[in-house]
């Protein structure tokens, strides 16, 4: 299935210890385990900022509707009922990986009312974000000679009071301008494609970006992939 390393956990508590000390790409968990069961492990993962995006496949011998609904509500990626063939698990793994990659690249448009400030040396330019993802964003702003292609730039974003995001401060978003195109020649507006420099993000900035994307996800949630 494309994995060259598999780490086995004896129960949910052991799994949390592994997750704290090893980079994990996907979790395959039984529902019934001693000390910490699969439902408790899923809750722990989805409520941990560093772990919450890891695909999580739940296995159980109970395929009842209540079990399935509970797992979906808690954020499971896929639900596999025992007994199952290897092909079934392989399909769940592939779908979970594909879904995770899709979420990373999903771009959200129609952001709530906001102001985006673009810093270029001593020049300060007002703009609007037209779409954003975990890896970059597109902004609309007046043309300025201070903004050049492949230039590393800093951005601050603030939201208006009635958006529900007033406490969210997207400060010091560092990124490289990778595309410039004319959007409206009459008012000399341009669209600027920006690729985020994630290594330059502070922990606070990364948390704020994740909170914004989670908010936008809830406004238009992705379809849950589940065969049941």
Distance between the termini: 23 Å
Named CATH topology of the largest domain: Thrombin, subunit H
CATH superfamily of the largest domain: predicted glycosyltransferase like domains
Question: How many runs of DSSP E, i.e. beta strands?
Answer: 10
CATH class of the largest domain: Mainly Beta
Low-confidence stretches: 221-228
- The share of residues in helices is 25-40%
**Which range does the strand content fall in?**
25-35%
Strand-pairing-aware structural class: alpha+beta
| Count of DSSP H/I helices | 5
Helix and strand string, N-terminal first?
Answer: HEHEHEHEEEEEEEH
User: Architecture of the largest domain, according to CATH?
Assistant: Beta Barrel
